[in-house]
Amino acid sequence: MMEPNSHRLTVAPMMDCTDRHCRYFHRRYSRHARLYTEMIAAQALVHGDRARLLAFNREEHPVALQIGGSDPDLLSTATRLGCDAGYDEVNLNVGCPSKRVRSGRFGACLMAEPDHVARCADAMVGAAGRDVEVTIKCRIGIDDQDPHKTLPRFIRAIAGSGIRTVLIHARKAILGGLSPEQNRRIPPLDYPLVLRMKAEFPDISIVINGGLSTLDQAKEQLDAGIDGAMFGRAAYGDPAAILGAADRRLFDESLPDVSSKTAVLAMLPYIESELRKGQRLHAIVRHMMGAFTGRPGARYWRRHLASATTTPNAGPELVENALKSVDADAA
After folding, report:
1. Which pLDDT score, from 0 to 100, does residue 330 have?
2. Do the beta carbons of residue 298 and residue 322 sit within 8 Å?
């Protein structure tokens, strides 16, 4: 079973962001933050290149696999594949508002079908067994729903299937008219409602997501009674500010905060190893662009890393040179 506080700080699944290279980089900053894959469709896992889709480095632990779908049989099989691959958690996406996802009958549109989500969850929990937790990430509601009525009903339904952790994006998803990017910022946040869910369902671990941009904000939610805080773009865009200080501030570690210079230097052997396997440098370093956000030399750092797309046979030395430019600018 999951260790205590296993979801105290998490990094949200983000399409085109939280691939295995990104997660490995984020792990250089924090030993304890729980990392999530990009959403992977259950059908793709069952019928596609599962070795590639499920690949991750053992140093990423604790790491969760997020899947999307609405067919209990496919979700059951996909869950079993994730467990066999060694993931610490399998998460069902009931929050993505994109039209493509909606057309496949998964993501946020399932907020309208809590009983069906419960059947899906029941199949996943059964496939996972006792050693891997199944969780759900959802919104507070969609479209014209009244979240104060529909969210409690949703949680009650999935709790009956054995779900013990729910990660809640504290905004509605507007499925007809807003893009996924707009759905991350336009619908108003309702943190009090998420906190109320913790009071109503004390046996459910509630993780809050949406709008969090500082560890102070996360600490405020945790102190109010929420079990965990999930960061998205803030952690991706400035990992040092969120992940580099998280182990000390949220997990009571006595070790010093991890600087981006330390994290980048720790990436060099990984980069060299991945290049030998045929990976492209840009596929790795694109996730490192925000390492020095708001710090001297950030512009030079990004410019140097961007050259990885045009510099033939570039290797770890490109990253080392970029780091020197940051040091020189900061001196």
Report:
1. 56
2. no
- Residue of 111, 91, 73 lying closest to 34 (CA atoms): 91
Chain center to CA of 257 = 21
Does 96 qualify as catalytic in the annotation? yes
Of the candidates 192, 123, 132, 127, the residue with the CA atom closest to the CA atom of residue 158: 123
Per residue in 142-189, pLDDT (tens digit) is 999 999 999 999 999 999 999 999 999 999 999 988 888 998 888 999
**Strand bridging mode 34-36 / 40-41:** unpaired
Among 17, 22, 83, 96, the one annotated catalytic = 96
At residue 1 the predicted structure's pLDDT band, cuts being 50, 70 and 90, is very low
Contacts of 155 (CB under 8 A, 6+ apart): 166, 197, 200, 201, 204
- The pTM (predicted TM-score) of the whole model is 0.95
Q: How far apart are CA 178 and CA 65, in angstroms?
A: 27
